[in-house]
Automatic annotation (TrEMBL):
VWFA domain sequence ranges: 480-625
Keywords assigned: Membrane, Transmembrane, Transmembrane helix
InterPro entries linked: VWF_A, vWFA_dom_sf
Organism: Thermobifida alba
Membrane-spanning residues: 16-36, 48-68, 89-111
Region span, Disordered: 656-676
Alphabetized SUPFAM superfamilies for the sequence: vWA-like (SSF53300)
Protein name from the UniProt record: VWA domain-containing protein
Length: 676
């Protein structure tokens, strides 16, 4: 009996030690599994796992006790032990089952207390351009992944990338501590009001600014002695120019009908072809293409023709990026697009994956045409240093990010198909994906592009871009703009809508020149009767210098107070008023959400079309979003009456939703200057 007791104690002791060992090891395994998968077992299998684990633990412990007490006095245990094989392996199996069940229950509770938690990542903020936002986000994701692997699974940095708008906007914000100006100077001697002149797409203060070209940096830090000043102060902000991050040559993207023997240079007089480029006033692409034309004309002894050459582009300045321009050209067949090689590549790759920015057809049937003297985009990395001292962990992540981007600039794998910079070229001019696209058209540029890159001088091109700016100003015509502002209650469905409307209106007012003429209507005039289908004249058409004092304050004071939305009626009335004024190239700008709330049927679209058929007035709709009536997959121009209105060739819609009000309004003003 004594020996039996000893054997029983030994068996119990061994089972208990085994149970503890299995529990600890299983807990460690399960906890590590949870840690690296980023999910608990409960999240994977649901609450049934916990109930099952508890029942399995309870059952295995009872069976383990019965197995250890074979021949014991308890009747229930004797009945249970009859179903278990009388072998040592039975005890091992039951011990393992009990240990794993216990581990499943306690691992999620114990592991967080034992494992060190990851600290919050440092945030780096990068401001860039609309065309670079997507590609830089991919690069930032790669950097974050690499830093996480280097840091033992914890992510030490979060890189936020967003499009910051024009160089003018960036300059204003950098000089003002990245804060909106407190007020804006009114036209005339009126009081100041809150500024809506800065696009609300701007995000937090950036640590880096990556524009399209070094010529944009040179607008903030003018070159001295033909050299780039790599350190510059702007207000309380320090700027450090760290060098290019990637390259892409500018090209003429030509349709199949383009003559094969015409090299990019001076635009030929061809009535069968149209010409388009992104806005010269707010993209490096537009400015450098303009600079190239001015340079060719000047060096060929035709400098007097620069203003005349610029006139061919006026009226096509609305696109604020190459992607936006190619999107707009989707419906036209015989237009030469002056863009970048990377923009053509991305448009081709996006053919089966339409961007939300381009819900329609992207123009992909254009072939790049190259010339050795066309300039490049170099997308420089500019470090922004604010006055406050930064923490050491931020400094360390800054340096790591800079090394990553500047190393990536020379990494040929990044420019291959599927690479993070596919379609661009390295800082030495290499780029497998871009070369493949160029070779399809017999360009044979693999070696020649290297030499072109070496000759690219951003300081020299900055000087030519300034001359192109002057030629553009000379070619511009006075604008005549009648602005109709929607004050219907649907404009208040979300607060951002009315802010966007004010932004559009004040941006247009702020860009007026002395010879421009401007008028302001609001609609509807009231809720009932004739007022429900009419507009109120706040400012009659007049030259900018004669506009009333406090005009911006008037815009600030507008509010969505009336229920009806007589959109078609106001378009007809505005067109007829501009026709009576007989202003050449006049533009009716309608700021609206497109939602029509009206008791009667109102003016029919067919009747409005007949009015539009007989006019030279252009109608530009700035759509600020339909609020609750706008579906998730809709753009602002898809809401309500706007798609049907925009079917007429005299009407175009500009999407001002999601922070694009400022850019849309600038584009409308530039179109008005072209007189067509």
């Amino acid at each position: 009996m004594t020996q039996t007791d000893r054997r029983g104690k030994t068996k119990k002791s061994t089972s208990f030690i085994g149970f503890l060992a299995v529990t600890v090891l299983s807990s460690l395994f399960i906890a590590l599994w949870q840690e690296f998968l980023g999910q608990t077992l409960g999240a994977l299998l649901g609450d049934l796992l916990w109930v099952g684990a508890f029942l399995l633990l309870l059952g295995s412990l009872v069976l383990l006790l019965a197995h250890a007490q074979r021949g014991g006095p308890h009747e229930l245990l004797r009945l249970l032990v009859k179903v278990l094989p009388d072998t040592p392996a039975t005890g091992y199996v039951l011990t393992a089952i009990a240990g794993i069940s216990a581990a499943t229950l306690i691992a999620p509770l114990v592991w967080p207390a034992l494992s060190p938690s990851c600290p919050l990542p440092v945030q780096l903020i990068v401001a860039t351009t609309a065309d670079s936002e997507t590609v830089l986000r991919r690069a930032a994701d790669d950097h974050e992944t690499a830093r996480r692997e280097e840091n033992g699974g914890c992510r030490p940095v979060d890189v936020l990338v967003y499009a910051a708008g024009t160089t003018e906007t960036v300059r204003t914000m950098l000089g003002n501590g990245w804060e909106l100006p407190a007020n804006t100077v009114e036209l005339g001697a009126g009081p100041s009001g809150r500024s809506y002149l800065i696009d609300r797409s701007l995000g937090a203060r950036p640590h880096y600014w990556i524009p399209e070209s070094t010529i944009e940096y040179l607008e903030l830090a003018p070159p001295e002695d033909g050299r780039i000043d790599r350190s510059q102060e702007l207000g309380d902000t320090g700027l450090d120019y760290l060098g290019p991050t990637r390259m892409t040559p500018l090209v003429w993207a030509v349709p199949a009908t383009f003559p094969p023997d015409v090299e990019p240079g001076i635009l030929p007089d061809d009535p069968e072809l149209d010409w388009a480029r992104p806005g010269l006033q707010w993209t490096s692409v537009g400015r450098l293409h303009g600079a190239h034309q001015v340079r060719v004309l000047t060096e060929s002894g035709r400098e007097a023709e620069t203003a005349q050459a610029e006139d061919r582009f006026l009226g096509e300045e609305g696109a604020d990026s190459s992607a936006a321009l190619l999107c707009r050209l989707g419906r036209w067949t015989d237009t030469v697009a002056l863009v970048s090689e990377a923009a053509v590549y991305r448009a081709r790759e996006a053919e089966d994956d339409a961007s939300p920015e381009c819900p329609g057809e992207t123009r992909t049937g254009l072939a790049p045409r190259y010339a050795p003297d066309l300039p490049f985009l170099d997308h420089p990395l500019v470090r922004v240093l604010w006055s406050a001292e930064e923490p050491s962990d931020l400094t360390a992540e800054r340096r790591a990010f800079e090394r990553f981007l500047l190393d990536l600039a020379e990494d040929e794998d990044a420019y291959a198909p599927g690479g993070v910079y596919a379609g661009y070229r390295s800082v030495t001019g290499r780029g497998e994906a871009a070369d493949d696209m160029a070779d399809e058209h017999g360009a044979g540029l693999r070696e020649r592009v290297f030499g072109w890159v070496a000759r690219f001088d951003p300081v020299e091109w900055h000087e030519w871009a300034q001359r192109a700016d002057r030629a553009y100003q000379e070619a511009s015509e006075p604008a005549t703009i009648l602005l109709a502002f929607d004050r219907s209650t649907s404009m208040a469905s979300v607060p951002q809508q009315f802010d966007a409307a004010r932004t559009a209106a004040t941006t247009i007012i702020g860009r007026l020149r002395a010879q421009d003429r401007f008028g302001l209507w609001s609609y509807p005039a009231g809720d009932t009767g004739a007022d429900a289908t009419a507009a109120t004249t706040l400012v009659a058409l007049t030259h900018r210098d004669d506009l009333p004092e406090g005009l911006l304050a008037t815009v600030e004071g507008l509010a969505p107070v009336h229920r009806p939305t007589p959109l078609r009626e106001v378009v007809r009335a505005g067109v007829l008023a501009l026709e009576e004024d007989a202003a050449p190239g006049a533009v009716l700008v309608v700021v609206t959400d497109g939602v029509r709330v009206q008791d009667d049927a109102g003016l029919g679209q067919e009747e409005l079309d007949r009015v539009l058929d007989d006019t030279d007035v252009r109608v530009r709709i700035i759509a600020v979003g339909g609020g609750a009536r706008q579906a998730a997959d809709q753009t602002a121009c898809d809401v309500g009456l706007l798609p049907r209105l925009a079917e007429h060739p005299r009407v175009e819609c500009r999407d001002a939703d999601r922070g694009r009000a400022d850019g849309s309004a600038r584009g409308v003003v530039e179109e008005a200057r072209g007189g067509r």
